[in-house]
Design goal:
Elements: H1 15-19, H2 32-44, H3 49-68, H4 74-89, H5 97-107
Amino acid sequence: MSVGIDIVLPFGYNFWEVMYMGRAKIMVSIPEELLTEIDRTAQEEHRSRSEFFREAVRLYLQVRKVRSIPSQDPRVQQAVAIQDALAQQDTLKDWNSIAEIRRWREKR
């Protein structure tokens, strides 16, 4: 059984022009030793240099977005959850944490 696929191209464009629509070429200056490492890593991962850079930029932007909103950082969420759990277990409801910290600082 064979399946046929019809590709309809916009009038006046060939297949390769359509494949590259929405992409921009950029020029970046990189030290030779860094480029050598990038090329070696890309080759090990069976990626093109362009694919390597696209993925690196995608990951950087994801990390940057998470870091820009601390409450969305999983480590912050975990720390808050731990603090909330400890607060629920607290039997010293009248304890003044600010006063305690000040006493601790004065002793140092």
